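Justification of resources, computational component.

The compute hours requested in this renewal are based largely on the per-chain cost of generating structure records like the one below. Each record pairs the submitted sequence with a full structure-token output. That output is archived, and it is also reused by downstream analysis tasks.
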Amino acid sequence: MRSNSLLFPAAISALVLAFAASGDALGAAGPNAASEAQPIAGAPSGQPGPGGPAPGGPTDTETVGDWVVRCFPVKGPAPCDMLQVSVAKNNQQQRVLSLSFAYVPERDAYGLQVIVPLGIAVQKGLSVGPATGPMGKLHYTRCENDGCYAEALVGGDTMTSLAAQGAKTSVSITPYGKDDTQAIVVSLNGFNDALAKLKVLAKQKATALPPQAPAPAGK
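The structure output for this chain reads:
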């Protein structure tokens, strides 16, 4: 199973560029598998094969608790991320959730990417943590063959709030045609240490954002 999460740095770079002018930051299984999911550090597709890392895949990885910190061979404002994947208990190749955070040193912000299964109620969005929290109403940005994506920039206060939730939190989704949400458990084991490692690596490897183009005359 090849995950489009390998393209995460490119997606976050585009997201950062889209937000750069405004300065804003937010303070392939079925969805029914959510109740039978377990978190693992990293993704089955993200592990190097016998010949080494897959082309375009991470060149540096380190497991920290239930998270894996990865850096990709790209030049951009956020070349590293921390990732946790939840898989179906009866099939570890069946992804139920992918949750990634990339640090953008130049903005002191984090690029968030969540991937959940197809078959969800897109218009209802999803939440990471409590529905009343800073990530309580995220919107899906796109759906592809491997799932539906939510991507956003979040600030440091949001990450602090997430870390304060204890040993675990959850991502809540709504299956299509249903009213009730389903919660997918996210382990916070190692979260703070992984976050610290991510920030160090990102500061070492990130490149600057391109300068903003001047506004057209008359605007």
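Residues 1-7, 19-29, 43-54 have pLDDT under 50 and may be disordered. Residues 191-205 form the longest helix (15 residues).
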